[in-house]
């Protein structure tokens, strides 16, 4: 089946209608549960006063969201605004210089402000700790042995995940700033990943070595320092050292529009948290047992969508600042609403690009060999486990996602032989698309359940699975899979339209003129 296989318009309209009705139905259940249980004793730790004049309380179960857009909003805005203003002020006060000198000057300004900001928030001993890790990995990179750079980087990363190393290094943080523990782990983790990228790129450099100053500019770029996203060193170096810094047509308009869209999404999520407690409800297992199947399924779906929205907004705010600095940061993650295969599942495109560039693609090759793919996925998720921090939930999440990624390849190999290929060839393109969508619907819920492990408790995931497969069988199971089938078809339609834009079909040749010079009519 080609990606451009089309379905009748009325069929697509039907799928969209089913999706909208199902979403409204599930939302109504969650809204009712939120309203009737707002004063529940188990909710008191997460449901806090919100809109006083409207009598609404707010779901504050997600610490990251509250930190970014409520409690420490002023600190984060101050730091990012200071980065923009400091760079602009230094540029205005600097004399007119050549392009080469200007590039060097801009990157040095970013380095100075980044070091000063980290020093102010975390203390000079923390800056010294980060510098020591940079110097260590820079020294190893001079040997230009990839496996040694990788091993050193992974051991260094492990030192921030295992006791007593992590406690000893945490002692380098000074002051009583409430965010210091969050900033400590964020800054350390991203620093090691950036240093590993630098070391691996230095191994590939054939003529000489990169200067350690380039590593410091790369690592201490403030918008990316604590929270990411990660840009690989080769991308950052090429963009910072480009020949000319100029805006494309309407680029500032697009940046402003992107910032306003992020602001609008923040407001929408804030409204959502006042009416639907999608993060707190899954923590109360006693309440979950009394909810309908549609409420449980809706909670599972909305939790994943929310996590994508959170990642998109947080990275989007940072990316807006980076784009003002003439950088092209990693794009937001792909929404779970548009995913039905494990190979495209990620919530951090920067980490995903890093893993693909340095682990997954080098080991997996063309990703057609079963053994090579298994080795590549095991190593990729092994690094991911170390990055996230080894624990029971992370290990289970990695195991299931690793299996899902390999199972897709095994299934593709299995159905690529006779008699399956002949059977699909006998179908029309539309029929083949419908058949594949049936299998994709099952795969979609595997993606949902496996990735819920990283966001919620194992007990909640077990309950969702039981409602779908056991307690709700066959009515709930069939209905949910049918709605999911409709969703997959809508996704495929979106992919089809994008494919037509990226690679339009060739126009038919013009009719040849007859002997009188007139074009022949069809």
Automatic annotation (TrEMBL):
The keyword Endoplasmic reticulum applies. The chain crosses the membrane at residues 12-31, 65-87, 108-129, 220-238, 259-279, 291-309, 437-456, 468-488. It is a multi-pass membrane protein. Residues 499-522 are annotated as: Disordered. GO terms for molecular function: acyltransferase activity. Its main location: endoplasmic reticulum. Keywords: Endoplasmic reticulum, Membrane, Transmembrane, Transmembrane helix. It is found in: Endoplasmic reticulum membrane. Belongs to the membrane-bound acyltransferase family. HHAT subfamily. This is Hedgehog acyltransferase like, b. It comes from Neogobius melanostomus (round goby).
């Amino acid at each position: 089946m080609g990606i451009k296989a089309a379905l009748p318009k009325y069929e697509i309209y039907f799928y969209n209608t089913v999706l909208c009705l199902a979403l409204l139905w599930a939302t109504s259940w969650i809204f009712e549960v939120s309203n009737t249980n707002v004063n529940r004793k188990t909710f008191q730790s997460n449901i806090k006063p919100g809109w006083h004049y409207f009598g609404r309380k707010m779901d504050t179960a997600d610490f990251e969201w509250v930190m970014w857009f409520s409690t420490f909003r002023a600190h984060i805005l101050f730091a990012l605004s200071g980065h923009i203003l400091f760079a602009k002020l230094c540029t205005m006060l600097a004399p007119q210089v050549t392009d080469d000198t200007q590039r060097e000057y801009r990157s040095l300004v970013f380095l100075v402000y980044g070091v000063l900001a980290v020093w102010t928030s975390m203390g000079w001993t923390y800056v010294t700790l980060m510098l020591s890790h940079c110097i260590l990995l820079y020294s190893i990179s001079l040997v230009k042995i990839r496996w040694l750079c990788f091993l050193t980087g992974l051991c260094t990363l492990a030192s921030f995940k295992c006791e007593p190393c992590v406690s000893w290094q945490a002692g380098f943080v000074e002051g009583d700033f409430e965010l210091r523990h969050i900033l400590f782990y964020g800054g350390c983790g991203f620093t090691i990943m950036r240093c590993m990228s630098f070391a691996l790129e230095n191994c590939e450099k054939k003529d000489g070595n990169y200067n350690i100053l380039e590593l410091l500019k790369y690592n201490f770029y403030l918008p990316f320092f604590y929270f990411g996203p990660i840009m690989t060193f080769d991308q950052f170096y090429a963009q910072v050292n480009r020949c000319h810094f100029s805006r494309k047509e309407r680029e500032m308009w697009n940046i402003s529009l992107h910032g306003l869209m992020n602001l609008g999404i923040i407001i929408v999520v804030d409204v959502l948290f006042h009416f639907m407690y999608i993060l707190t409800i899954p923590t109360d297992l006693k309440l979950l047992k009394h909810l309908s199947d549609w409420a449980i399924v809706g909670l599972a779906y909305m939790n994943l969508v929310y996590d994508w929205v959170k990642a998109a907004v947080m990275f989007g705010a940072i990316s807006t600042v980076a784009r003002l600095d003439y950088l092209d940061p990693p794009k937001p993650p792909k929404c779970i609403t548009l995913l039905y295969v494990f190979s495209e599942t990620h919530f951090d495109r920067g980490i995903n690009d890093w893993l693909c560039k340095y682990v997954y693609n080098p080991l997996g090759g063309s990703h057609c060999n079963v053994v090579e793919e298994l080795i590549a996925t095991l190593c990729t998720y092994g690094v991911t486990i170390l990055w996230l921090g080894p624990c029971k939930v992370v290990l289970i999440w990695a195991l299931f996602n690793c299996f899902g990624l390999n199972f897709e390849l095994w299934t593709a190999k299995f159905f690529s032989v006779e008699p399956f290929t002949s059977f699909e060839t006998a179908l029309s393109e539309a029929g083949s698309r419908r058949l594949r969508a049936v299998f994709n619907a099952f795969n979609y819920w595997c993606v949902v359940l496996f990735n819920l492990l990283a966001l919620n408790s194992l007990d909640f995931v077990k309950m969702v699975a039981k409602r779908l497969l056991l307690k709700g069988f066959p009515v709930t199971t069939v209905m949910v899979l049918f709605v999911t089938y409709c969703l997959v078809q809508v996704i495929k339609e979106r992919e089809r339209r994008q494919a037509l834009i990226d690679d339009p079909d060739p126009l038919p040749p013009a009719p040849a003129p007859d002997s009188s010079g007139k074009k022949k009519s069809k």
